[in-house]
Each structure stands twice: as C-alpha cells, then as structure tokens.
Amino acid sequence: MADQAEKLREMMRQKNDQQDGSPAKKNTDKNSRQTRIITVTSGKGGVGKTNISVNMALAYARLGKKVVVMDADLGLANVNVMLNMIPKFNLYHVIRNQKTMQEIIQQTEYGIRIVAGASGFSKIANLTEEERQNFIEELNTLSDADIIIIDTSAGVSSNVLDFIAAADDAVIVTTPEPTAITDAYGIIKIIATEIDSLNMGLKLVVNRVKTVMEAKKVADRMTTIAGQFLNLKVDYLGFIYDDPAVSQAVLRQRPFMVVDPKCKASQCIQHIVGRMEKSDLRDSGGFGNMIRRLFGRT
Ligand SMILES: Nc1ncnc2c1ncn2[C@@H]1O[C@H](COP(=O)(O)OP(=O)(O)O)[C@@H](O)[C@H]1O
Ligand SMILES: [Mg+2]
Questions:
Q1: How many CB atoms within 10 Å of residue 195?
Q2: Domain AAA spans what residues (predicted)?
Q3: Who surrounds ion ligand 2 at CB < 5 A?
Q4: What atom of ligand 1 comes closest to residue 151's alpha carbon?
Q5: From the CB of 50, is ligand 1 less than 6 Å away?
Q6: For a Cys-Cys bond, which of 17, 85, 127, 262 suits 131, CB 3.0-4.6 Å?
Q7: pLDDT digits (tens, 9 = 90+) for 33-89
Q8: How far is CA 152 from the centre of its chain?
Q9: pTM (predicted TM-score)
C-alpha cells in the first residue's frame, strides 16, 4: 500500500514538474500561481450551497479567473439543474476510464466550466487501484483552472470529508434557522475531529438573512463556540440576504448573478468573493498536493 502511494506521488511530482516547466504557465504572483480549491458545504440541506457555488464561480469569472465548478453532490445533479444543462457523462465515466475529464467537462454560456458529479461511485476509498489512477490523472487536467469550487452534499459522508481535506478553503453555509446552525456546528465539529492536520481556512457564510445584525449574531455565536469548544478558528466570510431574486432565478434555471447582477444577493456574493480574494491562500504546495491530500485520507 505504501508503495502504491509512493508511486502515485512520484507520478504527481513528474506531472507538476512538467507543468511548472512550461513558460506560458510561469506566474510570479503568489496568489494566482496555484489553483485554489474551495469546498462549499453545510450540515443541513437546502441552505443554499449550490446557489452559492455557482454564483461565486460567476463572480470569480468576472474577475478574470478560470473557474471550474465540480458537483460532488453525488445524489442529485444540482449544478446542472441550476444551469439548465443535461450532462451525458459525469465523473463516474472518468473513474471507469470510459471518458476523459476534458470530454465530460462542460463549458457553460456563463464563462465557467462544470464537472457533473457521479451518482455511481460511493467512496474514494472503494475505488480500485486502476480507478484511482484514472481519477488522479484526470483531476490533474483541471490544474489549469485558477479556482475549483466543489459543491458538496449536506452532512458528512466520507466523500465530503475527502474533498474538504483536499481543499484550501471550506466554506460552511448556514441560515439563521436554529436547526441549520446546530447542523453547521455539527459539521465543523466533525471536520475538526476527522481531518488531521487541519490547515485549511474554515469560513462561514450566513445565508438568507433579513438584516446585517442577524447575520452577525449567528456568525459571532458560531465562531465563538468553535473557538471555545473546538479550538478552531472559523472566519466569518459574509452573509447573503434572503432575496426573492434567488428563487426566481432558480426557477428560470439561470444564476441570479446573471438574471439580476444588481440584486441584493448578487452584491453579497461579490462581497464574499472579494473577501475570499483578500484572505490568504496558504501555500499548500499546489495542485498536486491537493490530489495527494484527497487520496491520502483513503
Ligand atoms: N439568499 C437566498 N434568498 C432566497 N432564497 C434562497 C436563498 N438561498 C437559497 N434560497 C432558496 O433555497 C433553495 C435551495 O438552495 P440550494 O442552493 O439548492 O441549497 P443546497 O444546495 O444547500 O441544497 C433555492 O432553490 C432557493 O429557493
Ligand atoms: Mg445543492
């Protein structure tokens, strides 16, 4: 097993060296040198993860970033539905070596690319050695992206934790509802206990708020509890107003950032991405390391 892992690492190192060697990719700007991987997650379902993933992706695209949204919600093809796209193939076909990542990745009319989730595979740990290798090789082809946003399912499956462990930032989404807050705290606690050497940025977004104060109260409570009881630093990234433009856009299967770029929710998303951009991207060793972390947990 250790040998296998070492072989994969060696393969990744070679890939990275090749990529770093190409003059077109050389970039001295610290923050844009590597792919930033952001997971969007929550304890409770229906709190706005998919909307936040897709619309954050659009806000990043407007800043000139190359963005990929990966749907890791293995149950429902949320991202596709939200963008009115029907994927023929998904990650499952990549893992089974039936398709390449470049064949399944879909360009959207909004300037972002999406990768459809796989409802057929349950756990990265259950992949055969060959399937893992396919997956690793194919994930590598996404390293030209500046930002990869992974929309996860609610709650904690092993896959969700795998993706969180591999990411640079985990954005935890809650609403002010007491059940959503309790579940968000639950997932933070699991992240704290299940993922060793947690050195990612844990970030909180409070969605569907009526007032700035309401959001601040929720955020204060959560960040304080996480600090006191879990000794974990959770940064309050921002809030999003409860805004009818969101559900209207969902019904039209278009992102609210496109349907109504000036609506309250769109402005909030832009603030959130602005704050993300200001927050440090720890030097995580680049894309190869992300993949190592993704498979290191299995
Ligand atoms: N800021 C918001 N304002 C109004 N409605 C919202 C907002 N965020 C989410 N919603 C509603 O909640 C529903 C679920 O959002 P979604 O992004 O699919 O959640 P999740 O991915 O967490 O399950 C949306 O279809 C929308 O109707
Ligand atoms: Mg969703």
A1: 18
A2: 36-203
A3: 49-50, 78
A4: 21
A5: yes
A6: 127
A7: 488 999 999 999 899 999 999 999 999 999 999 999 998 866 665 898 899 998 888
A8: 7
A9: 0.85
User: What's the CA-to-centroid distance between 47 and ligand 1, angstroms?
Assistant: 6
Domain range holding 129? 1-16+68-167+281-298
Sheet of 106-107, strands arranged across: 106-107, 113-115, 67-71, 147-151, 36-41, 169-174, 201-209, 234-241
Query: Quick check: CB of 240 below 6 Å from ligand 1?
Result: yes
52 within domain boundaries: no
**Residues 255-266: tens digit of each pLDDT:** 999 999 999 999
Q: Ligand 1 centroid to 254 CA: how many Å? A: 13
Number of domains in the chain: 2
For residues 142 and 250, state if they share a domain: no
In a domain, 43, yes or no: no
Which residue in this structure is represented by tokens 């050695």?
A: 129
Left (φ > 0), alpha (ψ -120 to 50) or beta: where does 155 sit? left
31 within ligand 1 shell (Cβ under 6 A): no
Per DSSP, the three-state class of 107 is strand
Q: Which of 81, 207, 246, 257 has most ligand 1 atoms within 8 Å of its beta carbon, as the pocket-test mutant?
A: 246
Bridge pairing between strands 234-241 and 201-209: parallel
The answer as to whether 24 is a domain residue is: no
Span from the CA of 7 to the centroid of ligand 2 (angstroms): 35
CATH number for the domain that contains residue 8: 3.40.50.300
